[in-house]
């Protein structure tokens, strides 16, 4: 009992501004990931392993402006808390009084990296595990879709946007503190969905309003990846993908040994007609049944 009281709880940590001395990480060491806009380090915060994103070339945004945006966004982020959404801890301002302050975004660390990395790796994944991972992904999206009266969409669903922890739990990421992060980037362009995950409606009309049905199509492609472990529309150009999806109403095939209940659900998400795709809530309910069926076998 005493041991459990001393163990830090992830749920008790509020999203807030974090002091630099509260973080443990060695910046000079090699980052675990690099991008044109940031470097990602592994560190510790309150005894939890965390990922620390440090922006390399920041916009001319003052610390007070960043704090103002961050405080407004924290209230929104609190409504997204879920085991299947990547946990945010907050921001940290480094060298605030210097000529070039550094900004750190502190978030939950997922040991296995992105879902795409796991699927491209050598870990053995049974059909039961794949079904549970699919359920996790759907639950993350559902939490987002039903979090506000005015619905919210992720805007950029792909297998690279989901993270996987050491127990193979899948968490939806890459939308946390989006406004705060946009204020830090020199490049103000938002995320855009890769053509491989675009619905037929988006491919046919670049002005098509992005909505929940588009996102269900995208997660259908992600579920196909989980089932096959392959890259969608590999080596195809944007024009070829559009031809296949729109003109031919083509769906990439699933493995012969893929459970029929799983096949039916993945194909429903990839339906050409938007109204035939399930909602995120229906998808979660049906995936729970798929998981149950596989566990009963």
From TrEMBL:
GO terms for molecular function: ATP binding; protein kinase activity. Keywords: ATP-binding, Nucleotide-binding. It holds the Pfam family PK_Tyr_Ser-Thr. Residues 26-291 form the Protein kinase domain. The keyword ATP-binding applies. One of its GO terms (biological process) is necroptotic signaling pathway. The keyword Cell wall biogenesis/degradation does not apply. This is Protein kinase domain-containing protein.
């Amino acid at each position: 009992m005493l041991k459990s009281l001393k163990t830090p709880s992830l749920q008790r940590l509020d999203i807030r501004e974090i002091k630099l001395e509260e973080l443990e990480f060695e910046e000079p060491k090699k980052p675990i990931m690099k991008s044109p806009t940031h470097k990602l380090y592994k560190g510790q915060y309150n005894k939890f392993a965390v990922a620390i994103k440090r922006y390399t070339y920041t916009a001319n945004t003052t610390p007070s402006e960043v704090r103002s945006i961050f405080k407004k966004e924290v209230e929104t982020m609190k409504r997204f808390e879920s085991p299947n959404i990547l946990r945010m801890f907050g921001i940290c301002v480094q060298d605030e009084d210097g000529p070039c302050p550094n900004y750190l975004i502190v978030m939950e660390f997922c040991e296995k990296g992105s879902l795409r990395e796991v699927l491209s790796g050598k870990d053995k994944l049974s059909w039961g595990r794949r079904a549970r991972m699919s359920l996790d992904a759907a639950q993350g999206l559902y939490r987002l879709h039903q979090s506000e009266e005015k619905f919210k969409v992720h805007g950029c669903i792909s297998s690279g946007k989901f993270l996987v922890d050491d127990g193979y739990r899948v968490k939806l990421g890459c939308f946390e503190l989006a406004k705060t992060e946009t204020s830090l980037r020199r490049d103000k362009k938002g995320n855009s969905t890769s053509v491989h995950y675009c619905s037929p409606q988006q491919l046919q009309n670049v002005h098509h309003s992005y909505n929940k049905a588009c996102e269900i199509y995208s997660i259908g492609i992600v579920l196909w990846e989980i089932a096959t472990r392959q890259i969608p529309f590999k080596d195809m150009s944007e024009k070829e993908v559009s031809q296949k999806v729109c003109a031919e109403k083509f769906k990439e095939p699933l493995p012969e040994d893929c459970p029929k209940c799983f096949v039916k659900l993945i194909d429903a998400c990839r339906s050409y007609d938007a109204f035939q795709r399930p909602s995120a809530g229906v998808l979660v309910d049906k995936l729970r049944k798929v998981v149950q069926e596989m566990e009963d076998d």
